[in-house]
């Protein structure tokens, strides 16, 4: 089977649109359709339910997704292992959920890159479900996330406690949640969502919902808006007079965790990595504050 068919299937699954998948893969829409038909013929099933403006996975398509992801991941790991074998370079894979990249992983990767030059790093952004599955399959060494899985085979360690503060680009005084303008809802994990629903009542329906601080930050700086951001990320913009803390709204403390398999073959290397991850306070990525 052509692995490109699998890549195309996953791209269509993510986009739910043949045209967008074609743009992302630099192909024509006709080529995307042909690849999906080839894959459907191979398995003898229909993978997508197609309508004019809506594409949904069939039950067969849903069942193919984890196998397709595993195929690509296994192939990627095989290529890396073969390439590294002759140089005897240790490879460590680190991944996190989207909401951890800008506030922690970016800085952590930089420190590991400088401190451990002989390690070949693989850094990815994955969903919580993908992180758990790859940890259990031992194709991922370290996961960084806000809501760690409760699985016996995995060891969970606390990395850092973030303070999420409400900030806005508007200078007018805000005395109640109802006065917050252009609110952007950032997904800081399950406990934050539950707390937000109870403690920040009356706030307007979010203009945007996103899983990354970077998207919220860009929108706020370009168009104006309000959001809950980590204090270390918001502080430089507050000092520059671009953001203003909303003192009438409550703050929230969010704990960040690392997860790894208890029987990981890279255990000695992981001890060094974990110590480095906990070594210093995280800093906001320079690319996000030099504006």
What's the total helix number? 11
Which CATH architecture of the largest domain is right? 3-Layer(aba) Sandwich
Largest sheet: 7 strands, mixed
Structural class: alpha/beta
The arrangement of helices and strands along the chain is: HHHEEHEHEHEEEHEHEHEEHH
Q: Per CATH, what is the topology of the largest domain? A: D-Maltodextrin-Binding Protein, domain 2
Mean pLDDT: 84
Number of domains: 3
Please report the total strand number as a whole number: 11
Low-confidence stretches: none
Shape: globular
CATH H-level superfamily of the largest domain: Periplasmic binding protein-like II
Query: What is the CATH C level class of the largest domain, in words?
Result: Alpha Beta
Radius of gyration: 22 Å
| Helix content bin | 40-55%
- SS strand fraction: 15-25%
Q: How far apart are the first and last residues' alpha carbons, in Å?
A: 47 Å
Please provide a written account of the structure.
By secondary structure, this protein is of the alpha/beta class. It has three domains: 3-62, Winged helix-like DNA-binding domain superfamily/Winged helix DNA-binding domain (Arc Repressor Mutant, subunit A, Orthogonal Bundle), CATH 1.10.10; 74-160 and 256-289, D-Maltodextrin-Binding Protein, domain 2, CATH 3.40.190; 161-254, Periplasmic binding protein-like II (D-Maltodextrin-Binding Protein, domain 2, 3-Layer(aba) Sandwich). It is 47% helix and 21% strand. It is built from eleven helices and eleven strands. Strands 3, 4, 5, 6, 9, 10 and 11 form a seven-stranded mixed sheet that branches. The chain has a two-stranded antiparallel ribbon with strand order 1-2. Strand 1 and strand 2 (55-57) form a beta hairpin. Helix 1 (3-15) packs across helix 2 and helix 2 crosses helix 3 (29-43). The longest helix has 27 residues, at 59-85. The radius of gyration is 22 Å and the shape is globular. The termini are far apart.
